[in-house]
Fold this sequence. Notes:
Blueprint: H1 15-37, H2 52-68, H3 72-105, H4 117-129, H5 150-165, H6 172-193, H7 205-224, H8 234-247, H9 254-275, H10 283-299, H11 301-314, H12 318-354
Amino acid sequence: xxxxxxxxxxxxxxxxxxxxxxxxxxxxxxxxxxxxxxxxxxxxxxxxxxxxxxxxxxxxxxxxxxxxxxxxxxxxxxxxxxxxxxxxxxxxxxxxxxxxxxxxxxxxxxxxxxxxxxxxxxxxxxxxxxxxxxxxxxxxxxxxxxxxxxxxxxxxxxxxxxxxxxxxxxxxxxxxxxxxxxxxxxxxxxxxxxxxxxxxxxxxxxxxxxxxxxxxxxxxxxxxxxxxxxxxxxxxxxxxxxxxxxxxxxxxxxxxxxxxxxxxxxxxxxxxxxxxxxxxxxxxxxxxxxxxxxxxxxxxxxxxxxxxxxxxxxxxxxxxxxxxxxxxxxxxxxxxxxxxxxxxxxxxxxxxxxxx
Length: 356
């Protein structure tokens, strides 16, 4: 979800796509709050918020192809990997550290499960190195128990490796065939599971492969075929369109709805977002939204665990929950801003100079 949309000054800046990335990240945060309150996701007003990850994957494929298709042969695979690690990994590490700290400092955690120093050290090390290690049963056997959203970063890395090794070289006909095959695999997963929510735990690990495979390939295909739709919807109009996908109520053909969102609707939004005319009034908002999206995505879940344990321990009223969710979302945004300004951006700036 984190690919830069403004890689080179000589290239067009897809500012609206940056802005949509922020809207999608915010939807993920609210979804994670609400899935604790409504354990039956069919009652959750933003029950499809997790589909934001599929939008991230499609956007990533589009942006990676846009940024590197015409220069990866010149810069080489090693430099490409360095650039991706510098862009992605500082927050992988930060999110792991934050998750570890709040795991021990959570005042509402009533779990009787304990881990030895060596066990917790291994869990932390795997989180930092982005190695799936689903051993925390009290946390649903998340592939990354200390920072659950890292599961999508794992697949992002896999997609980036595939791009560097062979996807960048594929001709359009081969890419189309692979995308169709990936669509078939994704369709099977959606029908079999009844949704596209998988990928985050040991029980649905390979669902993540299905989700990244189609969406990342579709994003590359959009760029290479120049499927850009000129329009005047702007950031506000497209924000409403993507929010509508997350807010759609549950119905009997849920799996089909989610599948069509990923197969057709999100790629369409990428086409529209890359071709829209952005009014000056929302330009700064789009830029800020894009910059804060990745820090928000990678730092909020440690706090979500605290919220979940509070919910179990205190059983607050609906009024209290409304206040907590709104206040918690604002708090997460503030934390993400400070992480962005005082950790992520300075660290990446240093690493770029150090390893250029």
